[in-house]
Amino acid sequence: MCCGCRCGKCCEKTVLALMQKLNPGLGVKEIVRLLNLIRKRLAEEGNYQPPKQLKDEKDSSTDEEDCVDEVLKLSEVADDLKLDGKWRPMVVTLGLMYKLQKIQDDSWYDVESVFISDKERRRHIVDVFGFFWKYLFSISYALVLRKTESKKLQKAIADGVDVKEEDVIVMHMKDAKNLQEHAPDSFLIIHHDRKEIVLTLCGTKLTPTPSLGDIMLDLHADSIDYLGGRAHQGMAIAAENIIKVMEEPLQKCCRENPDYRVLVIGYSLGAGVAQLVTLALIKGKKLPEETKLYCLAYGAPPIFRSSEEFYSPKNIFSIVHHNDGLATFSLHTLTKLFLQVRAIDSLKLSRRNMVKLLRSKLVIEQTDSSGARKHVCNPEVLEKGEWKTILSKVESVKSSGFDELDMVGGNLFMVKRCEDEDYVIRHLNSLSVMRNLSSNLKLRSDCFSDHMPWGYTGLFKESGEGYDISVLDEYLN
């Protein structure tokens, strides 16, 4: 029988309690704590006062029932945060922000210097990224068809990446019940024909059976001390576990094959972990000095920040599909987005006026000589109506209450596939420019599908043949 509240809340409470009971080591309480912190941050920005019975987020004595109750209060925040009693669809507010983000990015997104203009160079770069995406995908595909025997899986992976079974050096697959012991599926493979040692870190596993451990690593998005800075908690935990498993066999491969290069590659969750693993290898000087090390990270979010800028080495290459919005997702950017929505709502615009603003042509689309489409601000429209006031409100939100993390690495490539099978590539090569991308949760059309595996597969559909990784060496200085 229902306890008197809405059935949806009863179901939520039951699911959360069950998750905590069945998986006590995966940190369900920590996720609830983070949600609670977001709620408090929103409350601090308005007239809403948190309930007096709200427990301190550091109170480790919170029992299972109380912990679950806290997250259910989140669903009531929208009601408690009423500003004038009028309902405004969030999708319309997000639409206004979508248009504003396009003009906010004018100063860096569409300037001529960020584009790679040489068509042949673009083709070579895409072939490298396409080859290793397909490499990573072939391993993930073997996992989807996962065999019950490790020997069969080893053969499937070896066949997928075209090596002998004995060249699959390490297969690490552990869906741990304790988050501190978990890491995404990872594989160390040696390619004698190409003189490469490849450490592959897979993304969040959703098929054939979702990995709760991977999902919880993603959700543990608060930051902790790591490598002399602050890092995404879940990914830092995973990176440490990967180092423990892979360090010794990786070093052995390098000693036995001193002229081989090492590549650390990953996607999404695996991409962020790959970047932290690469930083750990560099900072800890864990590989021979003469070993060439590369990291290719597909769709990696902001995960690290330090007062020392050692975390922007040029040999870490981030690859972002054109409209991949999840590559800008962090606890900071998510909370900041909520705060910006509240800031716009505080203007008490009428729904009619909001729709009228959405229909106005704030952004003008232009095409440059290279064929790249650019979106620039229409100054006449910006000066009219409430656009300048809305922009001022959005830009007034600076802090989220959480650590602002950066994208790791010294080279970031935003890649878009065109209809003529050519590519538009934006190249960002400094921390200050990359912060334009990582400082806000980017609202883009196809922001979810461009992040998904099929999005990257479509991006690199007809690339990867005859790749030459030396094209990346030109970006190491």
Notable characteristics:
43% helix; 8-stranded mixed sheet; 13 strands; 18 helices; single chain; globular; 3-stranded antiparallel sheet
Map the helices and strands.
Layout lengths: L6 H16 L5 H17 L19 H9 L4 H4 L9 H15 L1 H4 L9 H26 L5 H12 L6 E5 L13 E6 L4 E6 L10 H8 L3 E4 L2 E4 H24 L4 E7 L1 H15 L9 E6 L5 E2 L10 E6 L9 H15 L5 H9 L3 E5 L5 E5 L1 H5 L3 H9 L15 E7 L5 E6 L2 H8 L14 H7 L10 H4 L4
Parallel strand pairs: 3-6, 6-7, 7-9, 9-12
Antiparallel strand pairs: 1-2, 2-3, 4-5, 5-8, 10-11, 12-13
Descriptive report:
- With 477 residues, the protein is an alpha/beta fold.
- It folds into 3 domains: 7-80, no CATH class; 90-104 and 333-395, no CATH class; 120-318 and 453-461, 3-Layer(aba) Sandwich (Rossmann fold), CATH 3.40.50.1820.
- The protein has helices at residues 7-22, 28-44, 64-72, 77-80, 90-104, 106-109, 119-144, 150-161, 212-219, 233-256, 269-283, 331-345, 351-359, 379-383, 387-395, 431-438, 453-459, 470-473; strands spanning 168-172, 186-191, 196-201, 223-226, 229-232, 261-267, 293-298, 304-305, 316-321, 363-367, 373-377, 411-417, 423-428.
- Strands 1-2-3-6-7-9-12-13 form an 8-stranded mixed sheet, sandwiched between helices. Strands 4-5-8 form a 3-stranded antiparallel sheet.
- The termini are far apart.
- Mean pLDDT is 83; it is low at 47-82.
